[in-house]
What we know:
- The chain contains 13 helices and two strands.
- The chain has one domain.
- The chain is an all-alpha fold.
- Helices cover 73% and strands 1% of the residues.
Amino acid sequence: MHKSRSIRLLVFIVIALAAFFLSNVVDELRVFQGASLSVYIVAIASIVLLTGYSGQISLGHGALMAIGGYSAVLAHNHWKVSIPISFAIAIVSTAFFGSILGWAAARLKGPYLAGTTLALAVGLPSLANQFSVLGGEQGLAFDVGAPPKSLGSDFTQYKWYFWICALAALIIVWITQNILTSRYGRQWRAMRSAPISASLSGIHIGRSKVLAFTISSGIAGLAGAMLVMTLNLVTPSAFPLSLSFAIVTGAVLAGVTNLGGGVIGALVLVAIPDIADLLAGKMGGAEKISANLPGFITSLILIVTVLLLPNGPKLSKLVSHKTK
Length: 324
């Protein structure tokens, strides 16, 4: 076990070095897409933990991301805390909300749980319009400041976002991987596969579900804080219903039980806007088509993946088997 963790740590260090090297050789658009990729990786990790391991279906993680985003911005703007502290506050506040939601979720199954979380995704972000402290539809600015001067004059703001997001993603994926290979991960897998047998073996199903929902919510909250940082703004429109569907699509695409495969799902989600723009240009570039095409492509990918590759592609399976 110790050797396995050492190997994983070495792999994470190599990935970090490669990512930071690439950020110095690609253009600004790719650097920004790298930051978005990191956001999706963290968000997908929350779904892998919740759905892939504990078996709880959530269609409302976009709303949990909104809680994390608003928490980070409010803490940063009103308390003048640093970015790491604001991210930590986003994790804790969203985890607390998730623990409350988890108690209700522990009593729901299948479509009932999915429907409840879907309603949350529809209603929660719009509540920001009702409270002036949340900025309404105009939102709240989130200025993390310029990068340190020690990094050089040619170190851009987008590169600074990427470094922060990539580091946060690497840390949270490392922590999540260790949780999933711990006794908690084994309990969740047993609970998902055979709940009656798991209960008879001494696993408290209700508490295990609440714990999974709490940790998953905290991870989603971090993804929300990272997202609003890259946007420099937090608004209800930053967390549409389509965001929740996109996260689930990314998790399903590479195998919902495979944490490493989430990178594949994140890459596809980042590429969808470019694909949509290309198709819209060939179809005449109509504004209505451009606005709706990304959502249509995401939905189509989700349907095709569920029908043809419900467990993810073969590459995802191989990676999943090797990590177990």
